[in-house]
Design a protein that fits this description.
The chain has 245 residues and is mainly α. The protein is 75% helix and 0% strand. It has one domain. It starts with a helix and ends with a helix.
Length: 245
């Protein structure tokens, strides 16, 4: 059982910081392997807690700089980002998707990454406008659909809007912070009884996920800098999802 949860933590950690959708992978594994470990989507939502802590610890200087310079502005931006993802989470929290529909969502993600791959620019995170945040909030609401990656959505949007390519991965993680926080809060409220019942398993997965995610971002310096490989991987996953499962 321990090895199952370690494997689960590895899947969550890698798919959380790359635009490959951890929820989509859960659907794939659930339809492929004879195990109920991938039936529990609550742990997918709660795993955002590990990422939240990692982002705060690794990028605390950048976050503090934003808070110091634009305290009220940053808080307003965070609230704007929460609007549509919160509504989407409440509406589709327990919705079950057909595996073929998941494949179509993967296709959407592939197209989004391809169309944004050649965009480059000098913009810094502090230059993001209210209009852009509203659009980003609307697009980010798609993250509840398996196959759609939250980081992928934010990353692609920032590429389209010509933000600094060197820091775009960091910007994507920082902007995902409010959405991750509301996801955890809503998950705890909605699935409180289930979390109580599985608390030991969830804590174990969260701890392992934290260490793997922290290691990948901080020490392996993992970045979304090779979209070709990611697109190829997603294409293979999409073919498996649409035609082989």
């Amino acid at each position: 059982m321990i090895f199952k949860y370690i494997f689960l933590s590895i899947i969550i950690s890698i798919s959380e910081i790359l635009p490959i959708s951890k929820l989509g992978h859960f659907y794939i594994f659930n339809n492929t392997f004879n195990t109920n470990i991938f039936n529990d989507l609550t742990i997918v939502k709660l795993s955002n807690l590990s990422l939240i802590i990692c982002i705060i610890l690794i990028f605390k200087k950048d976050i503090l700089k934003l808070l110091k310079k634009n305290n009220l502005k940053y808080l307003k931006q965070s609230l704007i980002l929460l609007i549509f993802p919160s509504i989407s989470f409440i509406l589709f929290n327990n919705f079950q998707f057909n595996i073929k529909i998941v494949g179509i969502f993967f296709v959407f993600m592939i197209l989004l990454l391809i169309f944004s791959s050649n965009k480059k620019g000098p913009r810094q995170i502090k230059s993001i406008t209210k209009k852009e945040l509203i659009i980003l909030s609307l697009l980010s609401s798609l993250y509840v659909f398996p196959g759609i990656s939250k980081i992928g959505i934010i990353f692609s949007f920032l590429k389209f809007r010509k933000f600094d390519n060197k820091n775009i991965f960091k910007y994507s993680l920082i902007l995902s912070l409010p959405i991750n926080i509301i996801t955890v809060i809503l998950s705890i409220i909605i699935d409180f009884k289930k979390i109580q019942y599985n608390i030991v398993s969830y804590i174990f997965v969260l701890i392992i996920t934290f260490f793997i995610t922290y290691y990948l971002i901080k020490f392996k310096n993992i970045k979304i800098n090779n979209l070709k490989k990611i697109v190829i991987y997603l294409t293979i996953i999409t073919i498996i999802t649409l035609f082989l499962i």
